[in-house]
């Protein structure tokens, strides 16, 4: 199938340009340095105070926020010009003159760029395992592997988002601004947006406090970085309610929201949050393809 050829070429180009090697070095440093610090500085104190070994769950709980910040921006940098850049340079017409449909191009770009980020992320996690094996930290292998795969999937989600925006954009500049804008919105301002929705409902409706909390949590979980953090939290806490409250940041507000959300409604269950997260793999590429399919190149 021709989408395989597009994906293969994208990945091979990244190998030749040493992008995969550079990203692997970045993720190895990003994961092993905190792992070593945690093992040497925190692990000893924890063992002295509790008489128990620190587990790798402490590492992934700290790393989840770092992953939610860095992986999306790297994925966007890899994929924002995947389609629009080729339209700008004129190589898209050449690519489509070969036996590739526009759908093949889009699917191939997603798979090729996804491989470029997934491989370095997994290499970084594998390197951190070595640190744990050489230090007095107990490795919870199941949780660790699940978190590594979830982190890689976050990268794929943002590759899909970036390629979708790139397919809908007419120029490389539009693709860049669109992707940077969505990253800034998700990373810096989504919490304010969710609070704004709740404030408007509180001012102009008579909705009760529990429903307002439901609306705020649902709005937060529409952000793929927040749904990622909430899904990751279930790995070190067996309580789905506690995992949902992770997006509120804890503290007094978390306690108040926890009382309003208890018992947890079915639409905030782990499977429903996973569906909201995985929807980002499908919706942006489909919307981008619908625009790209009819675009005049």
Short synopsis of the structure:
This protein has 14 helices and two strands; from the N terminus they run ααβααααβαααααααα.
Structure description:
This protein has 297 residues and is mostly helical. The protein has two domains: 2-186 and 280-293, no CATH class; 189-276, no CATH class. Helix content is 80%, strand content 1%. It has 14 helices and two strands; from the N terminus they run ααβααααβαααααααα. It has helices spanning 2-16, 19-50, 56-79, 84-89, 91-97, 102-133, 141-168, 172-204, 209-221, 224-233, 240-245, 251-261, 270-278, 283-293, and strands at 54-55, 137-138. It has a two-stranded parallel sheet. Helix 3 (56-79) crosses helix 8, helix 7 (141-168) runs parallel beside helix 14 (283-293) and helix 8 runs antiparallel to helix 9. The two termini are 23 Å apart. 39% of the residues are buried.
- How much β-strand is present in the residues? under 5%
* Largest sheet descriptor: 2 strands, parallel
Please write the string of helix (H) and strand (E) elements: HHEHHHHEHHHHHHHH
| Count of DSSP-assigned helices | 14
User: In order across it, which strands form the biggest sheet?
Assistant: 1-2
Structural class determined from secondary elements: mainly alpha
Intertermini distance? 23 Å
Helix content: over 70%
């Amino acid at each position: 199938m021709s989408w395989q050829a597009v994906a293969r070429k994208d990945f091979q180009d990244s190998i030749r340009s040493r992008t995969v090697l550079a990203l692997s070095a970045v993720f190895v440093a990003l994961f092993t340095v905190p792992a070593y610090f945690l093992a040497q500085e925190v692990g000893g104190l924890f063992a002295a105070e509790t008489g128990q070994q620190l587990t790798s769950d402490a590492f992934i709980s700290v790393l989840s926020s770092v992953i939610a910040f860095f992986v999306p921006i790297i994925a966007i940098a890899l994929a924002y010009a995947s389609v629009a850049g080729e339209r700008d340079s004129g190589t898209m017409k050449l690519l489509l003159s070969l036996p590739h449909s526009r759908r093949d191009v889009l699917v191939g770009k997603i798979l090729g760029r996804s491989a470029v980020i997934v491989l370095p992320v997994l290499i970084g996690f594998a390197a951190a395992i070595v640190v744990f094996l050489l230090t007095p930290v107990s490795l919870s292998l199941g949780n660790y592997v699940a978190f590594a795969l979830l982190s890689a999937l976050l990268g794929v989600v943002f590759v899909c988002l970036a390629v979708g925006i790139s397919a809908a954009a007419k120029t490389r500049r539009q693709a860049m601004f669109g992707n940077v804008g969505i990253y800034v919105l998700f990373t810096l301002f989504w919490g304010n947006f969710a609070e704004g929705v709740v404030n408007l409902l509180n001012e102009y409706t008579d909705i009760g406090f529990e429903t307002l909390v439901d609306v705020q949590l649902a709005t937060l979980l529409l952000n793929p970085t927040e749904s990622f953090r909430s899904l990751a939290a279930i790995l070190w806490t067996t309580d789905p309610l506690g995992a949902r409250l992770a997006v509120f940041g804890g503290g007094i507000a978390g306690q108040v929201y926890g009382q309003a959300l208890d018992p947890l409604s079915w639409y905030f269950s782990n499977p429903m949050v996973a569906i909201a997260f995985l929807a980002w793999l499908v919706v942006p590429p489909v919307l981008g393809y619908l625009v790209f399919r009819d675009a005049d190149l």
